[in-house]
Amino acid sequence: MSLAAARAVSDTGFDVRICFLAAEYSPFAKTGGLGDVAAALTRQLASRGHEVRTFVPLHGQMDLRGVDLHPVDFLQDLAVRVGHRELRYGVQTARVPASQLWLYLVDCPALFERPRIYSDAADEHVRYLMLTRAAFDCCQRMGFAPDILHCNDWHTAFAPLLLRTAYAWDRERFGATKSVFTIHNIGYQGVFSAGHAGDLGPGVGIETLHQADLATGSVNPMRHGVMYADAVTTVSPTYAHEIRTPEGGHGLDGDLRARGEAVTGILNGVDYEEWDPALDRYIPYRYDANDLAGKARNKEALLDLLRMAAPPTAALIGMVTRLTRQKGIDLLYDTLPEVLERGDVRLVALGSGEPHYEAFLHGLQARFPGRAVFYSGYSEELSHLIEAASDIFLMPSMYEPCGLNQMYSLKYGTVPIVRRTGGLADSVRHFDPASGRGTGIVFNDFDPGGVRWGLATALEWFAWPSVWRRLMLNGMRADFSWAAQVAAYEQLYRRLAD
Ligand code: ADP
User: Fold this and answer.
1) Distance CA 251, CA 19 (A)
2) Whole-model pTM?
3) To the nearest whole number, what is the mean pLDDT of the chain?
4) Which residue has the CA at smallest separation from atom 20 of ligand 1?
5) What pLDDT does residue 14 have?
């Protein structure tokens, strides 16, 4: 059924069949925002009457406690070809908790039974090409003809190319399918050696690949998503602008400019079923904008847990982040020690990533015992507690496609300090004490001076309770729910149909 026909039969106005591909899916497999967005967007689309079939690898280390897995009997012991390899796989389904949505978990132990979701192994591109091919193969076997093939980040970025080449013969299934490619982070493009270009086959001619890259010895999956998708989206309007510039494009700005209006930005939403201090199952004291007492008690509880004594006037700064250069940790080498010297500031940081950043944060904890705590690792529970307990959330990113924690922070009355970039610029408005408008502290320049100014401004306003309360409440009342954002995706699907 074409989109136009689908629209005609649905009295809600729309009813699309979507094949959705992602490497991560929260809470089962997540390293960052991609997992959160894949889960929230597909759930929202399904709840609005669209038929969504989501393909995700059955990762070896997936946390599937309490999830009912069902093997799909006619999708077992199948073979799919990726280059010269014949890979065997099966499919298990799992009902996404509290939804009508079924996940299709692609079970290929040879590729996905690994200690981590992403690896530096030489066959990394093969793993996700296999996922992409398995999704096409399953659509054919299930008799599912998607209106939209929605792929995400470099891992599944070859799907639009495969749609136009290897699977173009199957007009019954894919003749009307349009592709959408969403860039969640352009800093990761999945580049591999041109020596492995044959892994794109069968059915993909070498002439369809980016020739200049091949000439220099590489294949860039993300570039092919940009080249071949019917529409390219990214996760905030400002980032959509930034990635078209040489400074923000990580080498793909020319390809993105060449796609003209096919490239748009749609801000991510927040899953308020997961991230709402009035409902949060991970925090000891729940609260909302009408009664903030619980927030103060969460702060006491976290300080106690971390054995940090603090005067009642102390400000608690929180951070939850992947520890990579993108996140602006370099700007904190001098600025955090300076602010921790003050005595009325406490810091709790949760994150994992590059060893030198971990060493810096461990060093801070050693230098400021009882004032700074660094928890190295990944903890869903602690991340919620940090959001609920902190006064200030620090996010000085070099670039940020959308960013989620600043939006979680707003909901939790935890005032974000952010740099004016990407989705941070689109979701946090600098506060003006004179008018009482604004939701956070926004600095412009990616340098320590910017962070220093941001921290000083936050601490000045924090010492002024009526101003701070206003600032907190402004943020708590801001609405970044998925409802508006999902409507933007629906509009895009509609536009593709015309
Ligand atoms: P990115 O995708 O670049 O990492 P986002 O802000 O879009 O950044 O999303 C990050 C998500 O990952 C948020 O939900 C954040 O809470 C979570 N996260 C990042 N690091 C950790 C960690 N160490 N422990 C728990 N959650 C984390």
Assistant:
1) 29
2) 0.93
3) 95
4) 321
5) 53
